[in-house]
Amino acid sequence: MPHAAFWLIFSELCFASMGAAIKALDGELPNEMTVFLRNLLGMALILPWLLRKGGSGLRTRVFPLHLLRSLAGLAAMYCFFYALANIELAQAVILKMTAPLFIPLVAWAWLAESVRWPVRFAIVIGFVGVGMIVRPDFHGLDPIMLIALGGGLFAALAKVTVRRLSATEPGSRTVAWFAVIGTVVSAIPAYLVWYMPSQQAWLWIGVISVSATAGQLSMTRAYGLAPAGQVAPFSYASVIFAASYGWLFWDERLDWLDGLGALLIFVAGVLIARRRRGPVLARNEV
Q1: I need a labelling partner for 71 at 20 to 30 A (CA). Which of 151, 162, 222, 285 fits?
Q2: pLDDT beneath 50: ranges in the chain
Q3: 284 lies in a domain?
């Protein structure tokens, strides 16, 4: 258990570092290019495996599920990257952590899974926390906050789809299809706004790629060492890391409502992780 906790906390440090690098790119690159280059570098990392496997690496009988998982994950990536560039780093990370609140709802609507009363109660607690962060007023919700929440919903859909895929598909194939589809689809909007990035932008893109890859590998190791319900609470360490980056580099400060909202989302996520019948696989994090 201590080893699993260490690897999961380290993975969240990597993901928070990725988020800080994306925020540092604000104004350097449009969101479309950032998402595409993130996927392209991810594709480059998996290309040797694809070449070694040949056609067998992608052979599948459930391509529609791979397509759904990839498009949902890509949509979550667009939402999350946009939120990172336009609201406080910690707020964006907190709203990304709402995916566990949506997972039981997606599983109920799609897979007809029952949602037990403790999980329903946890979902309500979590969305009360969300309300404390987005703070709607008489003018309505901040559109960027809604985009960040949309990222949580799309991430939940992607994770439920991964669970469906895990019944017949190895994780390596799911990762490979996500890399291929994500790169091809994100190339279209990136082409429409393309220009050659500066040297500084390439540096940040490298940090994003290395951080994301290290985070995915560390997370996979953590969930391989202990059950998801035991180690999932440590994933909320990303909020601490993100808040620290935001304070150090952008003079961002969370107020007490943000802190209380984050705490309620954390409590809800822990309750859901411990009450769900089966863990939703955490690999392929966006």
Answers
A1: 222
A2: 278-284
A3: no
CA dist 78 and 88 (Å) reads 17
- How much is the pLDDT for 281? 41
pTM of the model: 0.86
Q: Note the pLDDT of residue 271.
A: 82
Q: Does residue 115 fall inside a structural domain? A: yes
Report the domain count for the chain. Answer: 1
What would the pLDDT profile of 235-263 be if each residue is shown by its tens digit?
A: 788 888 999 999 999 888 878 888 898 88
| C-alpha dihedral (181, 187, 188, 192), degrees to nearest 10 | 170
Give the rounded distance of the alpha carbon of 52 from its chain centre: 28
Q: Which residue has the tokens 């469906």?
A: 164
Beta-bridged to residue 140, according to DSSP, are 137
Contacts made by residues 64-68, CB under 8 angstroms, sequence distance 24+: 65/161, 65/164, 65/165, 66/165, 66/169, 66/173, 66/174, 66/177, 66/178, 66/181, 67/177, 67/181, 68/157, 68/161
User: Distance between CA 116 and CA 119 in Å, rounded?
Assistant: 5
pLDDT at 14: 92
* Secondary structure class of 155 (helix, strand, coil): helix
